């Protein structure tokens, strides 16, 4: 506790300046995530219904976390939110040294949620909405609303943070964010494999097969869960390992160079089925073979209509036997085809 000994009038002025600053920036929902702890705000409904930062501060006062002689939580809030430009009519020495502070009021997990909310993209929000709320989507206004809701439902908590992060489209950025934080002693971050969001059973002549909709990074598939075939897509003859493509991730994460593999194809059926595939890959990889589906060129008008070629080639590779295949939604990355359009053709095929 920091004994400031400030007067009631000075205290109220400081609270007014703090509230005005965060309200003006529209950060009340961010503060709700930061203060979403029963030790800080005991009544969750009051936290959620708050429309003014001043009311949040009054709840901190009631819970004994904020007073004229204890301003620690205000200083820590400024530090973890990074708003070092905060200006107040009240000049206090701790405010002048805010960057040097060691945060004591918020756990590493609460601080991580704050950083998560700051870095989360609209694509992340939409994907998480689908994962946790399908078919009745919440259509969250922002990342803070999503975090508060999933925390309240126990879908997001410290024990599940590895599962939560693994499914994000911006997974690599979130992983770097986690690794850059100072975790509490003994905390370890264990990555999980792909997250299965939905399963569609399909009845075939060979029996019932499952199509699994997964979130995550294909290149993080454990070798213990090895599949027969990984499918990638590319423009005709262009296997550039771009950072936004699966081809790029395969090279970066696994050292698998598709451009080099293309020089020694086991079978090349691009002229009739737009696909080629490799011979058996090294045993340390989580895929036995790689198959590449190619559009003819950037102006290739409707590559989604050729998705059926993928399945024809899969039958040839697997010799009409049972097998496992992992694939992204083809032609929707660097080739910028719409997910909904390509997905429709996968379904019809």
What are the main properties of this structure?
349 residues, alpha/beta, Leucine Aminopeptidase, subunit E, domain 1, two-stranded antiparallel sheet, 7 strands, 41% helix, elongated
Read across the widest sheet, the strand sequence of neighbours is 4-5-6-3-7
**Fraction in beta strands:** 5-15%
Q: What overall geometry do the principal axes of the alpha carbons give?
A: elongated
Count of discrete structural domains: 3
Distance between the termini: 66 Å
Number of strands: 7
Tally of DSSP helical segments: 16
Mean pLDDT: 84
Secondary-structure arrangement, i.e. CATH architecture of the largest domain: 3-Layer(aba) Sandwich
Order of helices and strands: HHHHHHHHHHHEEEHHEHEEHEH
Share of residues in helices:
40-55%
Rg is: 26 Å
Assigned CATH class of the largest domain: Alpha Beta
Low-confidence segments, ≥5 residues, pLDDT <50? Answer: 182-191, 335-349
Q: Supply the helix-strand structural class.
A: alpha/beta
CATH superfamily heading of the largest domain: Leucine Aminopeptidase, subunit E, domain 1
Q: What's the CATH topology label of the largest domain? A: Leucine Aminopeptidase, subunit E, domain 1
Major β-sheet profile: 5 strands, mixed
């Amino acid at each position: 506790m920091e004994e400031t000994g400030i007067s009631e009038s000075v205290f109220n002025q400081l609270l007014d300046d703090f509230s005005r600053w965060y309200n003006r920036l529209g950060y009340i929902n961010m503060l709700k995530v930061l203060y979403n702890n029963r030790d800080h705000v005991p009544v969750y409904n009051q936290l959620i219904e708050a429309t003014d930062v001043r009311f949040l501060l009054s709840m901190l006062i009631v819970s004994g976390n904020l007073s004229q002689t204890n301003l620690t939580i205000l200083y820590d809030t400024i530090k973890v939110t990074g708003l070092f430009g905060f200006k107040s009519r009240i000049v206090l020495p701790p405010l002048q040294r805010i960057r040097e502070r060691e945060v004591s009021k918020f756990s590493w997990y609460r601080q991580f949620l704050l950083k998560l909310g700051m870095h989360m993209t609209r694509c992340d929000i939409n994907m998480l909405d689908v994962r946790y709320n399908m078919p009745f989507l919440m259509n969250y206004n922002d990342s803070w609303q999503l975090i508060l809701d999933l925390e309240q439902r126990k879908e997001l908590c410290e024990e599940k943070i590895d599962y939560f992060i693994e499914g994000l489209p911006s997974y690599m950025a979130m992983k770097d964010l986690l690794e850059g934080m100072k975790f509490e002693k003994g905390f370890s971050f264990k990555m999980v494999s792909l997250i299965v969001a939905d399963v569609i059973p399909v009845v075939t002549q060979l029996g019932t097969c499952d199509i699994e909709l997964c979130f995550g990074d294909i290149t993080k598939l454990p070798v213990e869960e090895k599949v027969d075939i990984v499918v990638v897509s590319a423009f005709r003859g262009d296997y550039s390992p771009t950072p936004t493509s699966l081809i790029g991730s395969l090279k970066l994460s696994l050292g698998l160079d598709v451009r080099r593999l293309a020089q020694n194809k086991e079978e090349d059926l691009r002229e009739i089925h737009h696909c080629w595939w490799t011979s058996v890959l090294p045993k340390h990889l989580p895929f036995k073979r790689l198959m590449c589906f190619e559009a003819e060129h950037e102006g290739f008008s409707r590559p989604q209509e050729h998705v059926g070629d993928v399945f024809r080639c899969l039958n040839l590779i697997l010799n009409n036997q049972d097998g496992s295949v992992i694939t992204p939604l083809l032609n929707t990355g660097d080739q910028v085809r719409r997910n909904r359009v390509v997905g429709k053709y996968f379904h019809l095929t």
